[in-house]
Write a structure and sequence with these properties.
The protein has 83 residues and is mainly α. It has helices at 6-23, 28-35, 39-46, 55-65, 69-72. It has a single domain (6-71), classed as 434 Repressor (Amino-terminal Domain) (Orthogonal Bundle), CATH 1.10.260.
Length: 83
């Protein structure tokens, strides 16, 4: 098992969240409103630039996208494709 640095983990999770949003054809503002967070924060998370990312924020986003935290935190090669 390969260990990821914090930066790599944030980038991977952010990329996953961005993929989920794009698959649903949603704008950042729509997601932000749905989870009561700012569009700027959503953008920072998606771009792996929000180092203060908390489990609470991850849980809110996972719930919004109807995926488990476990699935959200999987390494990129193990992500499930949504239909």
């Amino acid at each position: 098992m390969t260990e990821l640095s914090l930066h790599q983990l944030l980038a991977a999770v952010g990329g996953r969240l961005s993929d989920l949003r794009r698959q649903r054809r949603q704008k950042i503002a729509t997601v932000a409103a749905g989870v009561s967070l700012s569009p700027s924060l959503i953008s920072q998370v998606e771009n792996g630039r929000y180092s203060a990312l908390s489990l609470q924020v991850l849980h809110q986003l996972a719930s919004y996208y109807q995926v488990s935290l476990h699935d959200l935190l999987q390494p990129p090669g193990r992500w499930c494709t949504l239909v």
